[in-house]
Amino acid sequence: EVQLSESGGGVIQWGGSLRLSCTASGFTFSTFGISWVRRAPGKGLEWVAAISYSGTDTYYADSVKGRFIISRDNSKNTLYLQMRSLRAEDTAIYYCTIFNYWGQGTLVTVAS
Amino acid sequence: DIQMTQSPSSLSASVGDRVTITCRASQGIRNDLGWYQQKPGKAPKRLIYGVSTLESGVPSRFSGSGSGTEFTLTISSLQPEDSATYYCLQHNYYPWTFGQGTKVEIK
To answer: pLDDT, tens digit, for every residue of A63-82?
Structure first.
């Protein structure tokens, strides 16, 4: 059974940093590109970042470019999202996804 | 960046009604479009990929169509469990972009 499980969310001060993790199981993680998607309160889904299967190529939404870094460790079947210079508008549930499978999400709250 | 304009933003329909949701891309995206359903407190669920291919286990009342820049999700006979927010997603060009969402309510 495919499973994606996010962790690392919490309450963080404005301007702070946080690292999210997503642990995968039930499929060959190292052969899939994977993304982070978020949903802010009262807003729609927003694609945040993606990384190729090997980790060589990364892509970002304009809203997070230069502040967030997506990475992966295929030996640990784990995806990461390093978030810096956090703003109120980064408050959201963050999901990792290969689009036919999604994690349950982890909540990030940026407090002013 | 490609903009995905989704309409309507919300709709209210009766059980058994035919419902249509549209997404228009600001430029051609080939067949790189999927439709997602999200219910409150749950992760999104992909219904359709490649414009018109139904995800395994998704009821056949859901269908997708379109090409180029205009795409449609149709629910042929709305059911109570279809109450949710629906999104299109283009994955042809980075940054990938979702439509703004359509909230579907049952009258």
So the answer is: 999 999 999 999 999 999 99
